[in-house]
Write a structure and sequence with these properties.
Elements: H1 23-37, H2 43-48, H3 67-73, H4 78-96, H5 98-104, H6 108-116, E1 126-132, E2 135-141
Antiparallel strand pairs: 1-2
Bound molecules: zinc ion.
């Protein structure tokens, strides 16, 4: 899930720049880094290494708990996720337009990557939307 293009020797990952210097934010950063690196233990991982009898999510009980489930579909996290997701989507749609949003972010894995590390999405040709009167003009940015 983590983009290696944002990694530079001697420079902290951009995730650490988004956090405040508080104990709770550092704990959030550690959790997010574990999710990014695939070392955050979810039921699927525990089951794979025989630390759990089932890969099914213990919160909702509806499907295997992997990172995509946790970030996009777990019904027990719906309200916690909705507020942040709506803000992220609005920010991206404002920048690239709804058509590109629908073209790029049409699967749960891509949405998960956006939530965890938006640097992974640099490989997509993003067209930035500009307004000229009532007309939207799109220009590819890198
Ligand atoms: Zn669940």
């Amino acid at each position: 899930m983590m983009s290696t293009s944002s990694l530079k020797v001697g420079t902290p990952h951009p995730i650490w720049k988004t956090l405040k210097c508080t104990v709770s934010d550092v704990k959030k950063g550690i959790t997010k880094c574990r999710m990014l690196t695939g070392t955050y233990l979810l039921q699927v991982n525990k089951h794979k290494f025989k630390q759990s009898n089932s890969p099914i999510c213990r919160c909702c009980g509806s499907e295997p708990e992997d990172i995509v489930h946790m970030m996009t579909t777990c019904s027990s996290l719906f309200y916690e996720r909705k507020e942040s997701y709506d803000k992220i989507k609005q920010c991206v749609v404002t920048s690239i337009g709804l058509n590109q949003w629908n073209n790029i972010f049409n699967d749960k894995t891509t949405i998960t990557k956006l939530i965890l590390d938006c640097y992974t999405l640099r490989r997509y040709p993003i067209k930035k939307r500009y307004k000229r009167g009532n007309i939207s003009v799109y220009r590819t940015v890198s």
